Amino acid sequence: MQQQTSFQVARSIRTAAELSANRPHGDRLRYIGGCRCDACRKANSTYERDRQAARKAGDWNGIVSAESARKHLKKLSRQGVGRRSVQAATDIADTILSAIRSGKKKQIRARTERLILAVTADLKGDATKVPAGPTWALIEQLLAAGFTKAYIAQQLGRKSPALQINKVSVTLRNEAAVKRLHARLIASDEVLVDSTKARSLVRQLRAEWIAASRIADELGLTDAIEDGEVRLPSRITRAQENAIVALHERLMS
């Protein structure tokens, strides 16, 4: 039975000569089948010339290893770009992408490889989930800089003062919003800074017999007077620090 099955399979494989028998002259398959007439030789020459031109133009579509495409698909997956997104961007069948990613498909067409390698993480949608760790690291920096959770929520456009951001994963949209807010607030005059420098400048002004009340009035810090001296907290806003620096330069010049 095994011999009969093998014989049937062998009989089902047709030779190039058989396949090309009904093809007209001038068809490359007829050349592969053994015909060497002028028309068939010209068809083969045209094919080879076009193939070489495509290779030089970067549009060669020969067989290549699927390894680079497989690694790129896995990299995209780690960046939040799933197989379906790649399929939508490349129009490559999902079954082929799955076989490439799993390693089942060892070789692919060069054009397929180029399409896959051209896909970048920019393909991620706003609703794509990403790890929340980096986002919360930025939030913690804002909290350490003196911004409250309620203020952060307000600046993010939340209706509720509660900062409702998941600790495990966040959407790409929320990640981007927190990044933008962090960059803006950390660079703003609202951020809290260490007051050591400012307190030193105030002491220098007092050493020049400039009244504490005048310093406080100039800075708009009348509630900072305590026991006849200007008492600054351990942290002040960058705007307050800048105001103290400017006052020191003006009064000491």
Spatially, the strands of the biggest sheet line up as 1-2
Order of helices and strands: HHHHEHHHEHEHHEHEHHEEEH
Compute the number of structural domains.
Answer: 4
Structural class: mainly alpha
Offer a few descriptive terms.
two-stranded antiparallel sheet, mainly alpha, 253 residues
List the helices and strands and how they pair.
Blueprint: H1 2-12, H2 16-20, H3 28-32, H4 38-56, E1 63-65, H5 67-78, H6 83-90, H7 94-102, E2 107-109, H8 110-117, E3 129-131, H9 133-144, H10 149-155, E4 169-171, H11 172-186, E5 192-194, H12 196-207, H13 212-219, E6 225-226, E7 229-230, E8 235-237, H14 238-252
Antiparallel strand pairs: 1-2, 3-4, 5-8, 6-7
Helix pairs in contact: 5-7, 5-8, 9-11, 12-14
What does this protein look like?
The chain has about 250 residues and is mostly helical. The chain folds into four domains: about 1-55, no CATH class; about 65-125; about 130-185; about 190-250. The chain has helices at about 1-10, 15-20, 30, 40-55, 65-80, 85-90, 95-100, 110-115, 135-145, 150-155, 170-185, 195-205, 210-220, 240-250; strands at about 65, 105-110, 130, 170, 190-195, 225, 230, 235. It has a two-stranded antiparallel ribbon. A two-stranded antiparallel sheet has the order 3-4. A hairpin with a 2-residue loop joins strand 6 and strand 7. Helix 5 packs across helix 7 (about 95-100) and helix 12 runs parallel beside helix 14 (about 240-250). It is rod-shaped, with a radius of gyration of 36 Å. The N and C termini lie far apart (about 110 Å). Residues about 1-15 have low confidence and may be disordered.
